[in-house]
Each structure stands twice: as C-alpha cells, then as structure tokens.
Amino acid sequence: MSLQVYEYGQEFPLESGKKLPSLQIAYHSYGRLNEDKSNVIWVCHALTANSDVFDWWPGLFGEDEFFNDKDYFIVCANVLGSHYGTTNPLTTNPETGEPYYLDFPQVTIRDMVQAHQLLANHLGIQEINTLIGGSLGGQQVLEWAASKLIKINNLIAIGTNAFFSPWGIAFNESQRLALAADPTFFERKLDAGQNGLKAARSMALLSYRTYNAYGVTQVESDHDKTDSYKASSYQAYQGDKLVKRFNALSYYYLTKAMDSHHLGRNRGAVEEVLHSIEGINTLVVGIPSDVLFPPQEQEFIAKNIPNAEYYELHSFFGHDGFLIETKTLTQVISNFLEKNNSKADQLNLIQENE
Known about the structure:
Helix content: 40-55%
CATH superfamily of the largest domain: Alpha/Beta hydrolase fold, catalytic domain
Distance between the termini: 44 Å
Strand content: 15-25%
Radius of gyration: 21 Å
Catalytic activity: L-homoserine + acetyl-CoA = O-acetyl-L-homoserine + CoA
Strand order of the largest sheet: 1-4-6-5-9-10-11-12
Main location: cytoplasm
Oligomer: single chain
Largest sheet: 8 strands, mixed
Pathway: Amino-acid biosynthesis; L-methionine biosynthesis via de novo pathway; O-acetyl-L-homoserine from L-homoserine: step 1/1
EC number: 2.3.1.31
CATH architecture of the largest domain: 3-Layer(aba) Sandwich
Organism: Sphingobacterium kyonggiense
Number of helices: 12
C-alpha cells in the first residue's frame, strides 16, 4: 500500500495551548476492515521510523507474516512532527507561506495520540483489536490507552516506559546539543543542521545497542592498526544514512516530544493512571540488555496495569532487539493473542447461554 494523507481541515490544538492552523497526517494501511470492524491492528512507530511498517518491521508485519493484510486491517500513522509526511517543521506554514523551521510549536506524545485519534475517526475505526508499539511507539500506545479515547482490546508495549527517565532525557539533550553545535541548524533552510544530525545519530546508537554487540560486530582483525577502526566508520556510516533520509529539525522536536512523555501529567500518580488501564489484555515486553529503556521500567508498567503480562525478550542487541528478534517476538505475541482470544470466545459463549 502506498502512502496516504489525511487532511484535517480545522485548527489542531496542542497540549501547550498553541494551535496548528492546519494538520495533515500521513499513514499506511494494509488489508481491509472486516464487516464488524474487529480486525484493526494499529502500530505506533518509533523515533525516526515512517508509517510503512511492512518495510521496517519485517518478520512480524508483512504479506506472509503473523500480522498480514489478509487477516487484518493494519494502520500505521506517521507521528506529528516527523519527516515522513505528517505536519512537521519543514511543512509550509499556511499563515506565512514558508516552512515553520524553528517556529514550529513544541509537540508532545499526547498531541501525537490526539492526531492518531482524528485519523481513526476518519477511517471509521471505533475499536482497535491490537495496539502495538516499541520505544517512542510504546509511549504512544500507553498514552492512547490512558486517554480512553477509543476501545482497545489488546495492548502490546515494548521497550518503553510510563514516563521518560532523567537518563533518557540526558541522552536526548546531549543529541540536541550536537544539533545546536552545528551553526547551520539555526538557518532557515531545508538542509539545516546536517552535521549536527550526523553526530546526534552517532550518540543515539550507543543507547540503542550494547557493549557486547559492538565487541562482536565491530571487532578488529588487524591488531596492528592505529586508526580507521571499524567502530569509527560504522558510526559515521549510520550518521550519514540518517542525514540522507531525515532532517535535523524533526529530530530535535521528536526528541523533545519523547522527553515530554509522562502518563501522570495533569492526571495524578502514574501508578493510578496505569491501574486505570483495566479491561485491556496487556503484554509488556522488556529487554534485559536495553540501556535506554531498562527492563525495570517495563516491569513497573506490568506491575501496575491490572492483569498485565510481562515477558523478557533476551537479545544481544539491546534496545534495537525488538526490531531484530522478530521470530521470538512473533511467537510470544501469537501465544498472548491466542490465549486472550480463547478467553473472549469462552466469555461470549457464557453470556449467550445466560
């Protein structure tokens, strides 16, 4: 399925009190909505991903994968502020006729979820069978469940947290310092801050992977060299890859949005908010080697959402494990959904016989 765009023809109010004069939401959908509209799988993507989940989450999503377009109606929307089609800093501001650049208002995870809900309404979706996301996508998943804007039957949150940690904010601020150290970042042009973005991506990779992963994948066979190491070229290569497909301003705003994530903001204690996510079959997945979202954060979520299940996904690759260990993840998710679908069938049978 090709990229689609929903034009929301009204002002879009933000959590900050500011408003976007207009809003467009880019998204991909796969398959068809069934007659009773019960087959919706909604995916919330991570920081620099796009809405084409069949492309970036193979092994779990695809024509011949567990989540496929024959059995399900799968939707993935590009987040507010991102580079891939949804309103972002390089979008033309209708009030000025020029891109927003750094005049773009700050957005939050809560704003992203409000935009998702507008798209769900547009698509005629009143119930999500399974809502799934990892990392920043997991933050959206939890926020959407806490907001109670739509009925959710199954919730799968992977490598994420109920509020972003000081540790995570420090990682993001270090990356934003790298962006700001590039003098072009503040210029009003489409390619502003590319060197800063390259450096920021290099920093981010250290939080996505692990010491052991680098010790194997970037190990040197030539012990006599004194420069031009594999690890050095790998960091530069990954930085260049992101520069070619993303922009520095979106990166800045999305890391700010990630920092903003806090389920308890204007709601009360986080534990109470999580406890209010009841009546939803919930699977929380943690990765023991994850440096950025350590497993105690997922354990906290699972402990406080009523009847939530917790699974530890052991991976050599740290935070990125949820994108790599798809064979194991598919089995875990399959078992989780099969068990809860069986419970739902039994409950329906009991109700019919009463």
